Amino acid sequence: MGATQSDFWRRLFAAAAIAFAAPSAALASDFSEPWKRDDRALVIDAYEYNSIDWAELATDKRIVGFINKASDGLPPPYACKGDETEVRLCRALFRRHAVAKELFQTRRTVARALGLEWGAYHLARPGNPIEQANNFIDFARPGPDDLMALDIEDNNPEKWMSLADAEEFVRHVHRRVGRFPVLYTNGSTAQHIADHRHLYPLLSRLPLWYARYKPEIDMHFPKGNWQSYALWQFATQANCNARRCPYRVPGTPTDIDVNVAAMTAEELRTAWPFGGLIGVPVDMLFRVPVPVARADALEGEVTIAYADVAQLPTFSMLAEAAGEGWRRMRYGWAVAMSGPYKGRYRHGMAEYAAGKLEAFRQMVADAESAAGIDPIATGSIPAADSAKD
Asked: What whole-number distance in Å separates Cα of residue 70 and Cα of residue 135?
């Protein structure tokens, strides 16, 4: 009886020890509050309205990178038309675009001077994904060491870019830059992409920038497709205020977004700017195996070779090309059939180009003279619409 009692208490104490040790083990996981580990690198992401004290921010040596919002949906129109309200809104959009672009370039210069890795993200909206990809590249002008990211806030094609269009966006960025962007999205959208990866061969293979504002994500992370995350956005305005916040970054207010990487600072610098695909070589998506002779195959001494292939044009690409071709044909037909051209630019394309340049300079001058970003249109995302489950 005594031996049994002793055995009972020994097992009880062992169980208690395991229970108390479990939280410590959980803290060591990259899926449970990894920002509490000193060996995990941090990255800040911001948009144009986040205020930043760069000198203060630089005192936090765990911060390795800074990702700034670049473009937002489709590019603003360069020529405004319509009634007075429409023209005012159009000019406000362009002023905001011009000021945001200037701020983007300034922040890139400062961040690099402080030794931070730099990145840019595109806020994906409904609309032509090819034009949005061009808008992003022309805005961000990514260098070979700059991270690129596609921000899909939610799987709602009425408010955000559809996942099918996102595939086209990613493919076009690769065509122009030669690298792939990182995919930023929330848990439910990431799981949907993972469950339908046969429909999204690119999105499902991009490095994942995961947005979820919970201390633990182990039970929710789509490990069937991604084994880990490139970045985890764990702190934002939704879960950070003056009283409590998962992590406070010096020199920034409570609305700054904070991300953690599942690697050390040195490992993150080595992996930056990602740019590849997970689980498959990039060229496998754009190459096909070259047929071999049956006799050679039967001998078994065959090395499979691959040939490059041109991708078929998408509907969006064809529509864009057709629209541009129609506009040029209509202009040329009007000039040819009307005899001496009596339009505004009667001396041809040189005068037309000069007029466009003059209009552009005037718009830039209007933007520079503005006291700030016009409140009529902003690029901010309210907290209620932030990417979260």
From this structure: 9
Nearest to 185 by CA among 210, 213, 158: 210
Residues 316-347 as b or e (16 or more Cβ within 10 Å = b):
bbeebeeeeeeeeeeeeeebeeeeeeeeeeee
Distance CA 222, CA 161 (A): 21
CB 217 within 8 A of CB 232: yes
What b/e readout covers 271-301, taking b as 16+ CB neighbours within 10 angstroms?
bbbbbebbeeeeeeeeeeeeeeeeeeeeeee
> In the chain, helix, strand, coil percent, each to 5?
45, 15, 45
Which CATH number describes the domain made up of 30-284? 3.20.20.80
Give pLDDT, residue 100.
Answer: 93
Pick from 264, 258, 212: which is nearest to 235 by CA?
258
| Consecutive H or E run containing 149 | strand 147-151
**Mean pLDDT score of the chain, rounded to an integer?**
81
Query: In angstroms, what CA-CA distances link 364 with 55, 85, 328?
Result: 30, 20, 27
Write the CB contacts of 353 (distance below 8 Å, at least 6 apart in sequence): none
H/E element, 8:
helix 2-27
Nearest by Cα to 153 from 110, 124, 128: 124
Cβ neighbour number for residue 218 with a 10 Å cutoff: 11
Residue 16 confidence class, pLDDT cut points 50, 70, 90: very low
Q: For residues 296 and 109, what is the distance between their CA atoms, to the nearest angstrom?
A: 58
* Structural contact between residues 240 and 214, judged by C-beta atoms closer than 8 angstroms: no
Q: How far is it, in rounded angstroms, from Cα 149 to Cα 123?
A: 9
Instruction: Tell me the per-residue pLDDT of 56-69, one tens digit each, with 9 for 90 and over.
Output: 999 999 999 999 99
Helix (H, G, I), strand (E, B) or coil at 280: coil
Residues 189 and 225: beta-carbon distance below 8 Å: no
Using DSSP bridges, classify how beta strands 42-46 and 63-72 pair: parallel, antiparallel or unpaired. parallel
Take residue 28 and report the two structure tokens written for it: 């060591």
In this structure, the strands spanning 208-211 and 231-235 are parallel
Q: What is the pLDDT of residue 171?
A: 94
More confident residue, 351 or 129: 129
Q: Cis link prior to 273 (omega < 30° from 0)?
A: yes
SS3 call for 199: coil
